[in-house]
Amino acid sequence: MSARDESISNADFARLRSLIYEQSGINLNADKKTMLELRIKRRLRSLHLDSFGEYCDYLFGPHGLKEEIVHLLDAVSTNKTDFFREPEHFEFLAQKAIPELMARNASGRPLLVWSAGCSTGEEPYTLAIVLSECIPANTGFRFRVLATDLSTTVLTKASRGVFSREVVRPVSADLQRKYFLRSRDRASNLVRVVPELRKLVEFRRLNFMDGDFGLPQKADVIFCRNVLIYFDRATQEKIMQKLAHQLVPSGYAFVGHSETLHDMDLPLVPVAPALYRKANGRN
Ligand SMILES: C[S@@+](CC[C@H](N)C(=O)[O-])C[C@H]1O[C@@H](n2cnc3c(N)ncnc32)[C@H](O)[C@@H]1O
Fold first, then answer.
1. Considering only CA atoms, which residue is closest to atom 10 of ligand 1?
2. Does residue 251 contact residue 218 with C-beta atoms inside 8 Å?
3. Could you tell me the pTM of the whole model?
4. Which of 10, 41, 122, 186 falls 20 to 30 Å from 246 in CA-CA distance?
């Protein structure tokens, strides 16, 4: 790559930014140019291209959008996550939300808990662990965790359910013994989620920008945490309107602790920090 091509031109940055915004809602400020360059560089190597200019010619050319957009959106999404991240939410779920949702669910239909923006799987597997602990199989109640994300790379990793020991450290030793398998190779640093837990989590690609989420049923609980921060306020409100529509009346919606739905036109009422509930009688 020549010195000239070591950075994205301002004109290319402007069209990349607006394409990314239009396709994913992710709003990249001017200060994200270096980050974008670093991430696209990996795509240049995979595509054997020599410059950002060539990359843009390909991307905005006849086949580029169809073939490359998924990879570009993968490259720009930020996937930081953890097991038991923001742990008060899981305590509320176990102590208050689930017992109450089970008591109201006289028909015994399976509860649906949705991790929207699930990244590499730590959040949905935490949900599956917490739900398994508070809804033992012998109670007759069932639940499913739906885990969705824009990025196919994170979904592939998430569905394998393989993590390093450092990553599972926030999980208590008891729960690690119950829900993770150690490798037969004693020198390996990897553990895998047990098949019984993996079976409870369904991963699928879903872009919040899509008109119809195509979900089979409304969710009892939605976790959409540390995702809204990547969008501008108007996009955040539109996404939350669509998510609230997918929630059953009196269902719970969790957002990240640095996110707020204050002043948005939503059928949700605040319950606790970063926790909302759908108003009864609203659709
Ligand atoms: C920082 S992670 C949050 C992971 C997890 N919810 C947590 O709190 O630990 C944000 C996730 O949102 C996803 N995301 C970004 N834009 C999206 C969109 N338009 N539709 C669906 N997911 C999106 C990213 O791919 C990323 O995995």
1. 227
2. yes
3. 0.94
4. 122
Residue type at position 2? S
E strands in the chain: 111-116, 143-149, 162-164, 180-182, 190-193, 201-205, 219-224, 247-255, 268-272, 275-278
Q: Residues near 111 by Cβ (< 8 Å), separated by ≥ 6?
A: 98, 101, 102, 105, 131, 135, 141, 142, 143, 144, 220, 221
Q: Residue 79 pLDDT > 50, yes or no? A: yes
| Average pLDDT, integer, range 180-205 | 95
* Ligand 1 lined by 24 (C-beta under 6 Å): yes
Q: How many residues would you count in the chain?
A: 283
Alpha-carbon distance 218 to 81, whole Å? 25
Tell whether the model's pLDDT for residue 3 goes beyond 50: no
Per DSSP, the three-state class of 116 is strand
Could you tell me the distance, in angstroms and rounded to a whole number, from the CA of residue 161 to the centre of ligand 1? 18
